[in-house]
């Protein structure tokens, strides 16, 4: 059984390759010539993820990948060359993927054109990897077991390419005896490894499933294929849950493109096997080809929402290929319009498309370029239409993607773009940015979302914070990760609006926030309302570099440091200390205006007023400096923050992108009056179920009533459910302590099972001694590897290097605390001292005494915490988590963890020193 197309379809395809697709075949053949000239070299190195590898430290950008330059790597900004092992082991990750894709190129071209040299090239790559595969160590991985890489999904992409290449060779009769050997030495062991790590609903699991469908088909293992299609995290589940009803992937545009390519493989192979998907899911998959066009920015880039790269253009061959493959399945005016934009609307010059260095299906974006069909990839060679239907532009229109939870209002024939990002939280790649506002006019990004930089750079935590977005936050802390809900959407000619909210308790406990955006032909109105069950500090960041001045005031407030609270002046610009609260990245914050209730302030930039703002209560306007967009020439940029305090309020801002407004005033009755430069006047009034705009022109009067109200949400937002376990009473000395023995059922694994790790165990004890809660941890394992206090930071990722050591992580959460206390503890040789580090974002004022010593077969640590700060825990239990890190001398990263709350079925990947309070064990403490 073949994978992507039948032998009959392959034979029929040869005519198209000799005809209209000949330029594509020729260009793909030209890409292979340098490899044919130089010869194949199978790398023996395993890829490594590190902070340094593959990045220019000066510009914060990824280095270029050149498959023919393994030891010299170029910065795309200034051309500086980088050398060193970390860069080389980053390079080898892409080289493994690149080389596997070259095998598919060669096998496809041979199958269609019959060139023996290309069959030999594909066979050499496949056979070389089969010989080398089991020599790569399955160790020190970042995100799942793998041999050549550091993450399972990368091995899945790589294996998928090699499976397709082998399948094409066998269909064309050029594989000889290669198939049995490759199945035995590569396909079966790699598939077994991939199947051992299920990533649930992640975009990465899409690729794991695609690889398992391919491998299971080649191995004639219907059980593997059935699980990958119909399992709880298989293809059908991804189409049902991950791909939302509006055709978008739940993690945002960046991951939409990545996941949908994987879905294409899985759907195509499933159909080739003769299986039919449910009609509704097949339609949703088809809709997903064009869905990202609905949110494209005026310059035909996609918005950098969530963990997206910044400023990524759709004018790339990979996106053109997606449109082609969608059209190959079904006529679609949106896809044809996108191809017109890519092929016939040449607004950017012709550049190197980068296809020659394409790394299979891994993300490596290239600068925008004009394109032709000859720039497409091997998938188009096999499956695109031989000839396209007539292409025509499709006008850019406003759009509502209710599944994704984003509304786009377009003006000026698409040149002005207004979006409210309110909905789906985005899962693990989501940001704390519900009710985020975007405003783009042509090439000017007024209110932008800059996505995310490197996952291994500390700025990741800034880009994920609320304050890095144009979104509301409470009490200086980033929003809780929840989804917002749509309350209204309506578009009537040149007037439209969207209203959305995060219900009570979503953004912060006891707080509800609503945002309404009204788009007029020449301006927009942004209204943010908030209510709280208690007095809170409300802040709205606006990422625009502008001066702020009170209307009627002669000068704006001076840009000087505000008085400190101790001096009796205004509060300082401080916020939460959580890892992703973002305030640690902000500096030089100054108060630039203080506006009383209903007073208007002007925001000025580029020698003109760009916005007017007023609130129903006092507002303090701040100007601060924070990180700029990833890879931007300027590493930092100013932004504004509007601050209010109390139990509720409304802040209204009017933005004008073409100097159409003379003034804007908020009346005492809450109505907004906008005076236009042409002498006309607009009055805006919000209602419970709509928004009315009354237009005055001389004696003429007309109105527009916007509706489209949605029902209020049936349930309120809430925190994550807590695992309920009956609390136990901690005894008082001299009574024996409460004890828990941790073994196989408590072990979180990496690549090695508990047995393979040498069966480490630990005993955790609890007892009240005098005025302290004493927690004892006795660990039994060998050998023991304590990281020395002066050991250099290996620079592997964003985590503290002490997690890669034998040691203990301790967490406490008292009922009245807003934040848990958390420590990372590593014993130091030569005494009883324990090196204790506070975990970022945890409570920092709780005393902790820690001592350690050797015991038979291992070591023990004694922690003592005073009872008084824990409060009354006789009826309201205290939450506790204890995690014992397990390290081995042959590893760079820890091997596993023994976990008090249980670790069976869990993996250590990406956990760092963070633990969810939802799984803490709970204890009642007696009063002493």
Short description:
The chain has 928 residues and is an alpha+beta fold. The chain has 15 helices and 38 strands.
Question: What topology does this entry show?
Answer:
Elements: H1 7-18, H2 22-38, E1 55-56, E2 61-62, E3 73-74, E4 81-82, H3 85-113, H4 116-132, H5 152-171, H6 178-195, H7 203-218, H8 222-230, H9 235-242, H10 253-272, H11 279-287, H12 317-329, H13 333-343, H14 378-383, E5 399-401, E6 406-411, E7 416-421, E8 436-441, E9 444-447, H15 460-463, E10 473-474, E11 485-492, E12 495-502, E13 511-519, E14 523-542, E15 547-550, E16 587-595, E17 601-605, E18 608-615, E19 619-627, E20 636-656, E21 661-666, E22 672-676, E23 681-687, E24 690-697, E25 700-706, E26 728-729, E27 738-742, E28 747-749, E29 761-769, E30 772-780, E31 807-813, E32 821-827, E33 834-838, E34 849-855, E35 858-866, E36 878-886, E37 896-899, E38 921-924
Parallel strand pairs: 26-38
Antiparallel strand pairs: 1-2, 3-4, 5-6, 6-7, 7-8, 8-9, 10-14, 11-12, 12-13, 13-14, 14-20, 15-17, 16-19, 17-18, 18-20, 19-20, 21-22, 22-23, 23-24, 24-25, 27-29, 28-37, 29-30, 30-35, 31-32, 31-36, 32-33, 34-35, 36-37, 36-38
Distance between the termini: 73 Å
What gyration radius follows from the Cα positions, in whole Å? Answer: 30 Å
The number of distinct β-strands equals 38
Give the class from helix and strand content and strand pairing.
alpha+beta
What does the largest sheet look like?
A: 11 strands, antiparallel
């Amino acid at each position: 059984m073949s994978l992507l197309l039948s032998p009959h379809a392959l034979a029929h395809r040869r005519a198209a390759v000799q005809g209209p697709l000949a330029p594509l075949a020729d260009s793909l053949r030209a890409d292979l010539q340098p490899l044919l000239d130089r010869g194949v070299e199978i790398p023996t190195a395993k890829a490594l993820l590190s902070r340094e590898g593959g990045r220019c430290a000066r510009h914060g950008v990824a280095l270029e990948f050149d498959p023919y330059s393994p030891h010299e790597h170029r910065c795309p900004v200034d051309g500086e060359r980088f050398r060193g092992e970390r860069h080389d082991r980053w390079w080898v990750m892409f080289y493994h993927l690149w080389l596997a894709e070259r095998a598919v190129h060669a096998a496809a071209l041979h199958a269609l054109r019959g060139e023996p040299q290309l069959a030999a090239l594909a066979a050499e790559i496949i056979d070389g990897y089969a010989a080398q595969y089991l020599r790569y160590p399955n160790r020190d991985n970042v995100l799942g077991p793998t041999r050549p890489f550091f993450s399972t999904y990368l091995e899945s992409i790589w294996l998928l390419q090699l499976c397709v290449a082998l399948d094409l060779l066998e269909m064309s009769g050029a594989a000889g005896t290669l198939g049995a050997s490759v199945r035995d030495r590569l396909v079966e062991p790699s598939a077994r490894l991939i199947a051992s790590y299920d990533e649930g609903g992640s975009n990465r699991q899409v690729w794991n499933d695609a690889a398992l469908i391919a491998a299971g088909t080649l191995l004639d293992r219907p059980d593997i294929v059935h699980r990958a299609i119909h399992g709880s995290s298989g293809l059908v589940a991804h189409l049902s849950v991950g791909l939302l009803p509006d055709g978008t992937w739940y993690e945002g545009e960046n991951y939409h493109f990545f996941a949908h390519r994987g879905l294409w493989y899985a759907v195509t192979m499933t159909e080739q096997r003769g299986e039919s998907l449910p009609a509704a899911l097949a339609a949703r998959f088809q809709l997903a080809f064009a869905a990202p066009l609905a949110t494209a920015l005026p310059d035909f880039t996609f918005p950098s929402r969530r963990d997206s790269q910044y400023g990524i253009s759709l004018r790339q061959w990979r996106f053109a290929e997606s449109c082609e493959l969608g059209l190959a399945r079904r006529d679609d005016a949106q896809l044809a319009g996108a191809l017109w934009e890519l092929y016939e609307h040449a607004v950017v010059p012709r550049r190197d498309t980068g296809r020659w260095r394409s790394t299979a299906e891994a993300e490596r974006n290239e600068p925008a370029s004009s394109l032709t069909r000859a720039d497409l990839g091997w998938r188009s060679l096999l499956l695109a239409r031989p000839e396209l239907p007539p292409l025509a532009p499709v006008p850019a229109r406003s759009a509502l993607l209710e599944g994704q939870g984003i509304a786009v209002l377009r003006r000026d024939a698409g040149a002005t773009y207004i979006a409210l990002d309110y909905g789906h939280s985005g899962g693990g790649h989501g940001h704390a940015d519900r009710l985020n506002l975007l405003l783009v006019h042509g090439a000017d990004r007024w209110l932008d979302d800059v996505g995310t930089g490197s996952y291994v750079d500390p700025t990741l935590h800034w880009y994920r914070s609320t304050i890095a977005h144009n979104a509301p936050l409470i009490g200086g802390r980033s929003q809780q990760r929840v989804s917002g809900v749509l309350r209204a959407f309506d578009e009537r000619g040149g007037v439209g609006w969207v209203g959305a909210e995060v219900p009570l308790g979503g953004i912060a406990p006891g707080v509800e926030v609503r945002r309404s955006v009204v788009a007029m032909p020449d301006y927009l109105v942004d209204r943010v309302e908030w209510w709280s069950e208690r007095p809170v500090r409300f802040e709205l960041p606006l990422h625009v570099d502008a001066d702020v001045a009170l209307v009627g005031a002669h000068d704006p407030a001076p840009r000087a440091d505000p008085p400190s609270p101790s001096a009796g002046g205004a509060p300082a610009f401080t916020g939460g200390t959580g890892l992703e609260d973002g305030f640690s990245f902000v500096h030089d914050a100054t108060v630039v205006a203080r506006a009383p209730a209903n007073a208007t302030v002007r925001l000025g930039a580029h020698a003109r007023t760009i916005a007017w703002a007023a609130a129903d209560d006092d507002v303090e306007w701040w100007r601060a400096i924070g990180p700029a967009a990833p890879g931007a020439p300027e590493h930092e940029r100013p932004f504004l923050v509007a601050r209010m305090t109390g139990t509720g309020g409304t802040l209204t801002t009017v933005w004008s992108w073409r100097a159409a407004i003379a003034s804007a005033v908020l009346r005492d009755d809450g109505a907004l009056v906008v005076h236009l430069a042409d002498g006309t006047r607009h009055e805006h009034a919000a209602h419970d179920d709509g928004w009315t705009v009354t237009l005055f022109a001389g004696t003429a009067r007309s109105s527009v009533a916007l509706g489209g109200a949605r029902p209020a949400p049936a349930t309120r937002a809430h925190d994550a459910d807590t695992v309920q376990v009956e609390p136990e009473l901690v005894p008082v000395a001299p009574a024996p302590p409460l004890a828990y023995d941790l073994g196989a059922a408590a072990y979180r694994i990496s690549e090695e099972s508990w047995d393979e790790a040498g069966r480490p165990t630990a005993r955790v004890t609890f007892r009240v001694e005098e005025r302290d809660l004493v927690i004892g941890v006795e660990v039994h394992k060998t050998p023991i590897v304590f990281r020395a206090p002066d050991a250099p930071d290996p620079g592997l990722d964003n985590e503290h290097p002490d997690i890669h050591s034998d040691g203990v992580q301790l967490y406490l959460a008292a009922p009245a605390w807003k934040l848990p206390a958390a420590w990372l503890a590593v014993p130091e040789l030569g005494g009883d001292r324990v090196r204790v580090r506070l975990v970022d974002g945890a409570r920092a004022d709780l005393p902790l005494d820690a001592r350690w010593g050797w015991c038979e077969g291992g070591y023990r640590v004694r922690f003592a915490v005073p009872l008084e700060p824990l409060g009354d825990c006789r009826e309201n239990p205290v939450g506790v988590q204890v995690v014992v890190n397990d390290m081995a001398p042959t590893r760079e990263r820890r091997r596993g963890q023994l976990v008090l709350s249980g670790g069976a079925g869990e993996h250590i990947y990406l956990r760092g020193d963070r633990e969810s309070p939802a799984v803490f064990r709970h204890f009642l403490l007696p009063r002493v």
